[in-house]
Structures are given as structure tokens and as C-alpha cells.
Amino acid sequence: MNQIHFEKQQGVAVIRLDNAPVNGLSHAVRKGIVDGICQAELDQEIKAIIIIGSQNMFSGGADIREFGTAAVTAKPNLLNVIDIVETSTKPVIAAISGICMGGGLELSLGCHFRVVASSAQLALPEVKIGLIPGAGGTQRLPRIIGVEAALNMIVSGETVRAEMLQATPLFDEFIEGDLLAGAIAFAHKVVSEKRSLKRVRDLKVSHPKPEAFFMFVRNSVGSVSKNYPAPLKCVEAVQACLTQSFEDGMQTEARLFGELYLGGESQALRHLFLSERNAAKVEGVSPAAKPRNVSSIGIIGAGTMGSGIAINFLLAGIPVTMLESKQEALDRGVKHITDYFADRVAKRKMKAEKAQTLVALLTPSLSYEDLAHADLVIEAVFESMDVKKTVFEKLDSVCKPGAILASNTSTLDLNQIASFTNRPQDVVGAHFFSPANVMKLLEVVRGAKTADDVLLTIMQLAKKIKKTAVISGVCDGFIGNRMIAGYSGEAGKMLEEGATVQQIDKALEKFGMAMGPFRMGDLAGNDIGWSIRKGITQQHPNYVWPSSALLADKLCELGRFGQKTGAGWYSYANGKRDPLPDSAVEALVEAHRKEHGIPARKISNTEIVQRCIFALVNEGAKILEEGIAQRASDIDIVYIYGYGFPPYRGGPMFYADRVGLLIVQRAMEGFARNDKTGGASWVPAPLLARLSSDDKTFN
Length: 699
Ligand code: NAD
Known about the structure:
This protein is α/β, with parallel strands linked by helices. The chain is 49% helix and 10% strand. The protein is globular and about 90 Å long. The protein binds nicotinamide-adenine-dinucleotide.
């Protein structure tokens, strides 16, 4: 299908971009625009040219399907296109509606005139993938909307509605009603008034106090963008439009863009951007499968997770019935939800009427009969197979046929849970992360019998509640918690071997983890792991725990569960969340070492990072090979959105790819040769070893 349509209307050439879903600037689109301009220039009857998009939007910028292919840089590239548009001898008018972003906005800045629907949304979002605009955006936008406004848009990457820029000369006319008709009328005006062709590049740009302003901006941007070089490069590029000619400024933009493009941070952020899109795809579902309709939700359990999960659906305007076994617990859950909305209102993030409307969508209940009509029920009761059994048997008897029955279990066997019902095809895992209304990740657990349409429904719903969903197969801990076991395990072992709680946390935080493993344990509650260990011991009385797990048990035996008890691996002053080093923990560790005859040694920060992160990678490789994760990039998503892995490192699997799998494997083999670093516990996963010897990568 043609991605560009060319037609003549009333003496005006109309070049229409038609590349769904966002009129991305694919090679075919770029070439089509150039051909269209040339054709229009040769045609004596044509007096002006309009560039407009299909589906009521201008263009979302680069066509991401071309990323990583030769088509991205194939000539004409966007710079060539803009140059040809800008130097056209006939007036070129961009007719803008819907989204006009990235390369789309840069293309419009190359046009001589711009007409717009006031609701159009504009952005230069390149900074979000670690880049700066690379087709003149940093040089043209400041020339037309002013340095400060342009800098705001470029450094933040945020979207601005066209009407917000009404006071600037960016738009020549705001058009109500039919955009094309308005653009054609405007074109006739330009021609009849013999208006000269305005080139944004020729506009004068200035700032009253450029040096002081840019020093201030560099300081403030630098302080919030530590591991991300792009925002400061945006500042540098914009500053060039004041200190350099347009041509030199374009060279500066190109140089900075090139540096960022090849840098690790942008590669990681681009990987993340594409990974997020891929994660939404479910492998192996029948093409005939269609999502089921979900317009009402039931939630069982109004505790930490149940009430958090409810907030997500209420925010999306979906009615929720929340069920509890006890009135007191129900009241607590409802209070948590109403407090949340009251806080939004108090912080002026939501209007009071809106909060009222959303809270009214919540129906608290103590009776299962109230779930009879729910399209989807999510269970978030205690983590006990017996309790889950009671709940799912009950759901099976009360819920309507076709209702989806989801469990938020983090450790239990979903297939067993499904077996408590006569409809295992309708049972799925919906593993939210805590706090459920904040964390972006949702692990969707695909049971052996989960129906295709059930998976599609949950993936679609995840989008509605603004979560990034990743499919996981059934295994102990699913993707995320299964991997974290090895990571925390290494941290525990290194504590025994001589490192301190603070050193380990700091080393991993310096690597970029949002929180070190001990701070994370204190936040989540050390008792959770303790109770899981007790459960395993109960099931497998002969299981031999590593001594580091016994150290964690000892901490819990002292009631040091973490922040909630005011003490864990750290201590916490009266309700505060700042972790304070605690000599009692040091004494506990010291006594433990003595008891187990472990001499303390000096451990380097490099060893800490390698052992913890490579443990993640190794388990990730097994998860991938077993088909628990659909793709390596899904594991990266889980770690970035669920476990605070630094986005600028692209997730553990991407990080390993960048380090080089051979290097990762050799490091593991080094640990394996030394009893002090874990010895025989380090066996590189077969997939890792294979990819490394074939010189391949996970991604
Ligand atoms: P919680 O103890 O805060 O809440 C559980 C609630 O379920 C309680 O209010 C309890 O009264 C209620 N309940 C128990 N049996 C019930 C029944 N038969 N019918 C109705 N209500 C019942 O627990 P939580 O932290 O919210 O965890 C709930 C589930 O979510 C567990 O499966 C847990 O593994 C999982 N999960 C927890 C976290 C977390 O960080 N807390 C994260 C992910 C998943």
C-alpha cells in the first residue's frame, strides 16, 4: 500500500502521509515527500504544497519498525527531506493535527508555514530514548518559539498542546473544523498575498542573559540527570543556536546526536523502548483469539495488595467490588483507598468531584454472591495454598461462565490453583508489585491451561491501567522473584564473607540499582522471605539451607522485619525511612561468622556487583531457555519496572550482552574456581555458555 498519496486540489498539491499507526517517517514516506515536492515544483498549475497526515494526525516521527535496519539511514534521510521542503520554490504548508512529534515536528519546522488544529499535541521526545533531536529540532525550535520554551520541550521531551504555543509565531493559523479545507484556504491566501517564504532557519534568535541562563540550566539539569547524558547535550545543542550560525549549529547537533547514539545509555533506553512494545506480544496465541469484555472487576482481599490493585482499576474508571472475610479488614482496605484519593485531591493532582466519582465506583462487600456478575476477579488473599483453595472453589461456584479468575500469588503454583476450579482455562496469574498502584510492572502468569483469549484480555487491561505487562510461565517465583533469589543469595553470602550491609548496598546503588538488597529487604519485609523459607523447610525437611540464609533467619528471630518494625538490616528512627547503620547487626554478623568458622576477608565493590548481577543473568538465562520468559527483553522489562534495575543499563540481559557474554562467563568460571567466592555453586547456564561460544547475545 502507498504510504504517501499525492493529489491536486484547487491548484494546491496535497501530500498526504499514510503510514499507520502514526504516519511514521519510513523510507517510503520520506521518499514520497521528496517526489511529491519535485512533482509539484514541475507542475505549472500548482501554486502551493500542503503536507498533511492521515488518521487525523500529522506524524509521530521515525518509524520504529525500521530501527536497526538499513532503511533508517537510507537516502533521502530526514535531513535531506527537510532541506528539500525548506528550499522549495513554492510555499510548503504543514497542516497539523493529532500528534506531531520528533521527526514529525522537525519536518513541520522545515515547512514555510504551519496551520494547526488547537488540540494537536507536539513534542520532541528524543531525550526519553537518550538522544537529542537530530533533524534540526534543536536549532529551529528555539528560533521560532524562543530559547526557554524550546529548551523546556527538548530537555523534558514532554508533550505540549498546540494552543499552549498560541502566543508564539510557530503557527500561522489555528483551524477549526476541516483541517485540509482550512489549509487549502490558507494556501490560497499565501499565494494571493504573495507572502514571502519564511524559513525558520533564517529567524533571529536571542536571549537577554544567555550566559547566566545557560549556567543556571546546566546546573539544574545536570543535578537531576546524573547517569543520563542526553539532557545536558540537549542544553548544549540549544545553546549552540545562540553562539553559532545555523549551519554550524546543525553540525553541533549532528555531533552530539552521534555521540549519544553510540553511547551505552541511549542504546539501553532504545532497547527498553522497543522491549516494552515487544512485551505486549503474546507468543503462540491463535490469531482467532480476541480479548474478552471486561467492564467490572472483583477483588478478593482488601489488604496491602488488594486495595492497591483496586486503586488501579478505579483510576481507569472501571467499577470494582472488593470482598473481604472480615468487616474490620474491609474497612481498613476501603480507608486505604479513600485516603489515596483524598491525598490526590489535597495535592491538587485530582479534582474533588473526579475523586468522588471514582471512589463511588467501589463496592465493598462481605458476600461472594456480589461477584456473580464480575467479568474478572483478582484474588489477593493470604499466601497460603489452603486459603487459595477455599477462595477458588468458591469463585468457581459463584462466578458467571466466562469470567476470568486471576491470582496475585507471588510464589504458589498457578496450575494447582487452577485445578481447584472446573475452568482452569479461565485461570491466570496477575502478579502485581507493591505498592500495586505505583509499580508499573505486571507479571501475567500463563498456566498450562490458560486460554489464549484470557491472556489477551489481561494484556489489554494492563495497558488500560497503565501497567507494562510481561508474560511468565509457571515456576517458583515466576521471572522476577526466581531471579532475585540468586541475587539476594549472593549479597547474603558476601555479608558472611566479610562485606558489610552498607558496602553491599552502596556498591549496587552505585551500579544504579534503585536500592541495595538489604534496604530492599527492609522495605519489603524480611519476614516474607523468612516465611517462604519456613514453608520450604516444612515441605522438604531435609533441605539444607546455606548458612547465609540462617543469618537472615536470625535477624527475623530478633523481630527485625525491616521498616515496619523500625529495625531490620538497618535501624530506623521513629517512623523515618532513612536507613541507619546498626552495631547490633554488625555484632550479629560477627557472631554468625564465628559460629560457622567463616574468616572475614576484604571484598571489592567490583566483586559485589559482578556476583549479584551475574547471578541475575545466569538465572535469567535458565528462565529463557526453559521458556518461562518469552524473550530476553521481557526479563529486562521485569527488572527495570519491578526491581529498580537502572534503565540506562537496559536490564540485566542487555547489560550482560553489552559487557560481553564471554566476559560474563569467564567471571562466573573464576568464582567457581574459588571456594571463597561461591565455588561450585557457579555453573554458567547452558544457554549462556552456548551463546558465548557462538559469539551471540541474549537480545
Ligand atoms: P495482606 O495480608 O496485606 O492482605 C490479605 C487480605 O486477604 C487480608 O486483609 C485478609 O483479611 C484477606 N483474606 C484472607 N483470606 C480471605 C478470604 N478467604 N476471603 C477474603 N479475604 C481474605 O496480604 P498482601 O500483602 O496483600 O498479599 C496478598 C497476596 O498478594 C498474596 O498472595 C501475596 O503473595 C501477593 N503479593 C504480595 C506482595 C507484597 O509485596 N505484599 C507483592 C506481590 C504479590
